[in-house]
Amino acid sequence: MPDITTPRPIPAPATRTVAVVLAGGSGQRIGLATPKQLLKIAGKTILEHTLTIFERAERVDEVIVMMNPGFVTDAQSIVDRAGLSKVTQVIPGGTSRNATTQLALDALAHLPAATTNVLFHDAVRPMLSQRIIEDCVTALETHQAVDVAIPSSDTIIEVDDELITDVPQRSRLRRGQTPQAFRLSTIRDAYAHAWEDPGFEATDDCSVVLRYSPDVPIHVVAGEEQNMKVTQPVDIFIADKLFQLATSATPELSEDDYERQLSGRTVVVFGGSYGIGAGVADLAEKHGARVFRYSRSATRTNVANPDDVAGALEQAYTATGRVDFVVNTAGVLRIGRLDQTNPAEIEDTLRVNYLAPVNIARASFPYLARTGGQLLLYTSSSYTRGRAEYSLYSSTKAATVNLTQALADEWSADGVRINCINPERTQTPMRTRAFGDEPAGSLLSSDQVARTSVDVLLSDLTGHVVDVRRESLALSGARTHEKEREAAK
């Protein structure tokens, strides 16, 4: 009897997604000798921020960097130092956007066009969300070309010789962003036809498909305002501020995450006897860290005294052989007119609120450089604008923010991170002494700020000012409860 078997279906070949990061800009438009993608924001170059986004994207398999030809070595150093394993090539870009895209397509010539997706993204858009990447790759399952765009909030006018010739209907207009995503076969074919046109010139890749492969519909994915392009000098300032306020970048860690990342680590907490400092120390100790708490009240440690700070760090290092995290929550809050504040109080405020962070940073650096650790400082919402009768407090907290940003830049090559927590009004003994009892529910708890602080310590953030707000914690809690309910089903 013949052996009759049902043929097994042949599985479809897996699709590979490659992100091409376009980093060929020169920085001339903002008056720089160095390409803007190599400027540092929040402790890292813009290029590194952008590459890290794709490194973490689950549906991106490979990353290629198209770099300004004079800075290929710089880009490769960034890739190597950051351990960006998905980056397979750093290639010199061309003299135009179109030439650079073609060079990228040449670099992808070994991949099968039918089963390869390619995402072209501007290196100077360092705040691209994972949602946009996911939406682009998903859209390529049913479309051959995909653009990212946001509605225009401004009225767009057409002008000829400084006179308005048309005012297009705003509801139909969008502002284009990147990535622009294609099936490799589609973008290859479009460029093959484009190069046959002697007058070929385009500012982006979707317009190449639109013009030279007109039968291919281009799907539009919703972009985001924060996915901005750093082009003008003011953009650097805006991007820097957005990174400072990027609380969404703070990881949401589980108890298991704490246990895994804190066990065996050494944490030094200045101001660790009460309030936020005690909360950080308790949480770290609970999950296996060796915690050393220092304060005036418990250990007679004066953070304004460099010798006391150096002695505390040496004691922790001698006992455990390492220092992974240093936290400084020590501070003083005195309210009153500056002209009515005596010199001794002024000097004490400046020493504790600003010179102490400086001393702690200097003394901590050698230890943290050995472990790739992090220093965590604290500011106040008053740092953004000096307030009457808060002149010393507000100005020292603003100085702490600037110190954080500067040291993140200085220390980046050494692998040492530094961040600053900016809590909303928090129920601490220092605040109670200044303001007395306040309505229940109007303040954050010390433990809430402490948990966010530990989350930041265990992150790879550097140079960030991380806001802690009651409403953001409530949303985070709601998301956590939802995840728990889903897991329980």
From TrEMBL:
Annotated EC: 2.7.7.60
Domain of life, per lineage: Bacteria
GO MF, one example: 2-C-methyl-D-erythritol 4-phosphate cytidylyltransferase activity
Site feature (Transition state stabilizer) residues: R29, K36
Keywords: Isoprene biosynthesis, Nucleotidyltransferase, Transferase
Biological process per Gene Ontology, one example term: isopentenyl diphosphate biosynthetic process, methylerythritol 4-phosphate pathway
Record's catalysed reaction(s): 2-C-methyl-D-erythritol 4-phosphate + CTP + H(+) = 4-CDP-2-C-methyl-D-erythritol + diphosphate
PROSITE patterns, sorted: ADH_SHORT
Pfam families: adh_short, IspD
Stored Gene3D superfamilies: NAD(P)-binding Rossmann-like Domain, Spore Coat Polysaccharide Biosynthesis Protein SpsA, Chain A
Annotated positions for site Positions MEP for the nucleophilic attack: R170, K229
Pathway note: Isoprenoid biosynthesis; isopentenyl diphosphate biosynthesis via DXP pathway; isopentenyl diphosphate from 1-deoxy-D-xylulose 5-phosphate: step 2/6
Family: Belongs to the IspD/TarI cytidylyltransferase family. IspD subfamily.
Function of the molecule: Catalyzes the formation of 4-diphosphocytidyl-2-C-methyl-D-erythritol from CTP and 2-C-methyl-D-erythritol 4-phosphate (MEP).
Protein name per its UniProtKB record: 2-C-methyl-D-erythritol 4-phosphate cytidylyltransferase
Organism: Nocardiopsis eucommiae
Gene symbol of the encoding locus: ispD
